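retry 2 of 3: previous attempt timed out while embedding zinc ion. Reduced batch size to 1 and resubmitted. Inputs unchanged:
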Amino acid sequence: MSEGLTLQELTDCGAHQRGHFLLSSGLHSGDYLQCALYLAQPQRAARAGGVLANAIAKAGLAPEIIVAPAMGGLIIGHETARAMGIPFVFTERAEGEMVLRRGFGLERGQPVVVVEDVVTTGRSTREVISILEGLGADVTGVASIVNRSGEAQPFAPLPSRALLEVDFPTWAAEECPLCRDGVPIAKPGSRPIK
Ligand code: ZN
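retry 2 succeeded.
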C-alpha cells in the first residue's frame, strides 16, 4: 500500500481537472479539485482512510475518537475511524453554523483528531476544533487527504498531516493569465460559461 496519494490518482478519476475555472471564492484558477469524485468509489475511500490512519498513528496523535467537518470530511473521517478501530462523531451545518449532530458528544480530556478531505482556507476545520475545545476535548491534530492551503502547517501549533500537498495558483480576474490568453472559463462541473 502506498504511503501517500499522487495528483495523478486524483486526475485519473476526474477529482483534479486542468483548465480555466471560476472558483466559488470568485478567484480564477487553472486547477480544480473535487475530492468527492475520488471518494465516490468506496474502495478508494477505504484505502485513503487506511493510509490516513497510518499517518495519524505515525505522527503519535493517538486519538480515541475522530471528528470531521460536514460535508467534505464525513466519508474520509468515517473511513479513517474504521481503519483505527475507534468511534466517529458526525457534524452538520445547521443554519450556517457547524455543530455536532444531535446525540453526539465527547468526554472532557478525550484525545481527538479532526479529519478533512481538502484543507483550503481551513475554515470548517477550525470551526470543528473550536467546538471540540469548547467541550473540553483534547484536540491532538488534524489529518486531511489534500492540503492546498499553501502552508505546511496550517493549524499550527496543532500538528497536521496530509496525504498530498499541492499548491495551485489562483488569481483575481484582472490578473488571470488564462483570461489574458482568451481561454474560455468554466464553472467546475459545467460547460464553459463564456
Ligand atoms: Zn481567468
